[in-house]
Amino acid sequence: MKFLRFHILLCFCLLSLGLKAQQGNNKLIVFQDSLIKLSGNVLATQSDAEKLDINGKFVKTLVEALKTPNSFAFPFDSLKNISVIKSPDQAFRILSWYVQLENGTYRYYGAIQMNTKGGPLKLYPLIDQTENLSDPNIITNNQKWLGARYYEIVPVTSGNRLPYYILLGWKGNTTLTTKKIIDVLSFDKDNVTFGAPVFDGKELKGKNRVIFEYAKSNAMTLKTDTKAGMIVFDHLESFDPEIKGKFEFYGSDGTFDGFKIIGGRLKLQEDLTLNNDPNASDELYADPKKNVKPIRKF
Questions:
Q1: Structural domain boundaries of the chain?
Q2: pLDDT at residue 142 greater than cutoff 50
Q3: Contact indicator for 171, 106 with CB cutoff of 8 Å
Q4: 203-214 core/surface letters (b: 16 or more CB in 10 A; e: else)
């Protein structure tokens, strides 16, 4: 009889937990629908004042959504304009996005949500201070953030030291140039730090982060390559050898460099040979060195 009572009580508790989880999930779906609408309104609005006002409402709604129990497990994957990425160790996730202003520049927004295993919300707001940072290489915190829209997190561990995380991000800049960034995120108790001198290689001494800048009309690869076992990126050069430092004239020269994690540090590797898996569109590629047009089979 006692066993039967225990079994009934256990079933009741599990059913109750399941109902609460379902209710929380339904609530988050409603929040997500509101966020989708607000995000669309930001894109449809022309004036900066209106955009920032609507985005402020978006921020408040998002924070309310994240206060919902077990919100860390909710993907928010219908928010197409927001990047939501979890650390591979499931310790936290970063939500980041931007608002493009009338003058062609960008303002960034974001938050770090810690995985509290269903406990109270632990959220670090990311306050974009790009315009106020006189030196983009300085070590900052979440209140003085060099804004970016992150798309990849790479954990780095070494010995008994606290782990840190490499963040790969896109940073729209002006009407002339775009930036991509390799930043370093670390946690120490309740403190969040961006930037650390973990880069080794030519001209990298004292670098706390790496920022690439190139012509807005071009694209740049910056990603992890599992086959190569490193973070790889296009080598950028000026289109005109006589023009240096004017990044609106910079683009990929067709070669690749990378960072390999060795002993908890990022070691620069130059002139990499990357072998991609065969792809049906390979025959459409025109090698600029041969100046041959692709054969289009359609």
A1: 1-79, 82-275
A2: yes
A3: yes
A4: eeeebbbbbbbb
Which residues, 6 or more positions from 248, have their beta carbon under 8 angstroms from its beta carbon? 176, 177, 215, 216
Task: Please give the Cα distance from 123 to 110 (Å, whole number).
Answer: 10
Task: Report phi then psi at 3, rounded to 5.
Answer: -65, -40
H-run or E-run covering 178:
strand 177-188
Q: Is 144 helix (H, G, I), strand (E, B) or coil?
A: coil
Q: Which amino acid is at 81?
A: N
- The burial of 36, by beta-carbon neighbours within 10 Å (0-12 exposed, 13-18 middle, 19 or more buried), is given as middle
CA–CA distance, 101 with 47 (Å, rounded to integer):
8
Angle at 171 between CA 170 and CA 173, to 5 degrees: 150
Mean pLDDT is lowest, of 3-7, 25-29, 166-170, 264-268, for: 3-7
pLDDT for 23 equals: 54
User: Which 8-state DSSP code applies to residue 134?
Assistant: S
Q: Which helix (H) or strand (E) holds 236?
A: strand 230-238
pLDDT of residue 296: 35
